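Dissemination and training. As part of the outreach component of the grant, students in the summer workshop were shown how a complex can be specified as a set of sequence lines and then modelled as a single object. The example used during the hands-on session is reproduced here so that future cohorts can follow it. Participants entered these lines:
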Amino acid sequence: MTQVADLGEFSLIARLTASLSTPPDVIAGVGDDAAILDIQGAMLLATCDAQVQDTHFRLDRSAPQDIGRKALAVNISDCAAMGAHPRFALISLLLPPTLEVATLEGIYDGMRQEAERFDVAIIGGNIARLAERLVLDITMLGLADERRVLRRQGAQPGDAIFVTGTLGLAGAGLLAQEDPTLSVPRDTRQRALQAQQRPEPRVAAGLWLAAHGATAAIDVSDGFLADLEHLCEASGVQAEIAIESLPIAHATRTIAQAAGVDPVELALSAGEDYELIFTVPIHAASDLTRQLAEATGTTATQIGFCAEGAPQVMIRGNTRSANTPTGWDHMRGPMARN
Amino acid sequence: MTQVADLGEFSLIARLTASLSTPPDVIAGVGDDAAILDIQGAMLLATCDAQVQDTHFRLDRSAPQDIGRKALAVNISDCAAMGAHPRFALISLLLPPTLEVATLEGIYDGMRQEAERFDVAIIGGNIARLAERLVLDITMLGLADERRVLRRQGAQPGDAIFVTGTLGLAGAGLLAQEDPTLSVPRDTRQRALQAQQRPEPRVAAGLWLAAHGATAAIDVSDGFLADLEHLCEASGVQAEIAIESLPIAHATRTIAQAAGVDPVELALSAGEDYELIFTVPIHAASDLTRQLAEATGTTATQIGFCAEGAPQVMIRGNTRSANTPTGWDHMRGPMARN
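and obtained this result:
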């Protein structure tokens, strides 16, 4: 018998959801960062994401507050990627009976702080017992301004591709966390740990981009290449990425070097950066970085463009990592590098 | 250190959610069957509930389709209890890698069937790995007609208390499931098993009651007494229940007798009936059963009334069970019987 482990996440989702029907008030269902509903004229987004102990977080490695913050932040990031306001959260807790109440209160406190920071109201939830692990399963509802949302689909051949912030820093943080003896400056380590444990959802940038003509967007959760490929598949475009243009922080390079890892590989595949990949028409590209920074304080870098062709990511340029792809096991779709 | 197991579910929720703030578009947050949101004039309900393997279901006792149906049904029931249309579901799956895909497909198929039966669209979800158990965590969004919803609060002293259907049949089904050798007629066993494995959310009744002046409602999930007590606490009324008026199906009595269990105890405490407890002004009580049955085909029985006094449930009448309360461990609030 076929087991769940034999199928990838995406083929499993495809199999389960193949025959779902979609009523007219569901503008987008399965397959975007969030579903989009038409609630009597208002555009409501709905998404959920679970953080599982020892898969997504470890109680011995992160402060309870940081675990709570991040559980909320990854859902807020889904709203950011669609250019919407995160507004309402439902918190479903699966709790081992032996969990210390003080730890749980710390986690909940972190969720509440993150919620307040983004004007999200915690409106309810559920508590159930789960013997083995703590799971934080969060549903986030968001609202779009004037029915404008960003989706994975919408990018056109010729559009420029940008990414906010830098890539790979969260992955570098994971390396630093896994090896406390890594010989790097203290503030470098701290910066990377912060990126890993306290991701900053790009809500202001997403809202600004939705209002200023971006054609498609996605957040970097699974990894830059995997997520960009989702965008390519949804939009039916090929992405041409210039490898030397990828924004990689000095801290990422320092930690990668100390750990013997290719920083470009971290940038391409490590994931959890929660930056936004987005596309804009080429005529808007030249001044976009300045405008976005002025309006929201968020940096963005043009890293390539969309072309006609099979929906895949083409990496242009020389890199050590081009010959040593790692961390890609979760990907099944077409992918090429040259 | 205090552990989660040292606190009851309700005191844990109270502790975690004590300092949550509520923006103006949150009409009701934590503390009802669902949160109520004002989405630009539309009344949207949001609720979530997790079904955990070996706590809420067992793969060796229920068909996969039934497990899926019920996971959706318990969330639909929360919308029913508030007199709203269940509309959109997010399905969060926590999956052991060894789970057979065929089992998962059966469960998802059951969810899809139940969704279609109630015009609910499955709009998205999440898949995460959980080594030890299968968990189905479902978020349900509902919409109220013309801003009318039923809540736990709203019952007034003097209101009549009703319950739909019968009480204890799901509990009898659990007894039948636990002891396959129980000497009861085959159709009796089947009826009880069906009640336990395929609860029927009272959506039509809830909608009708919301439109016809019911003052408060809650569904029977934890157990009749526990849930009625929630209604009393939210409404600030005392409930006076006439024990001989409780609707108990013949099948429930037959199975209870065979298992050596008091059927009244099943009715009061076993839970999972997913019937609606509701209150109506006394002037509406006399004809309500007929009207509700004509409009929705749902039976309802008047079982008592609301009085001024401490928010608790007073059971009137003689019963064996009055001296042998069982199954109440999850309750902490004030409770009296005489």
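The first helix of chain B runs from residue 9 to 17. Students were then asked to discuss how this feature might be tested experimentally.
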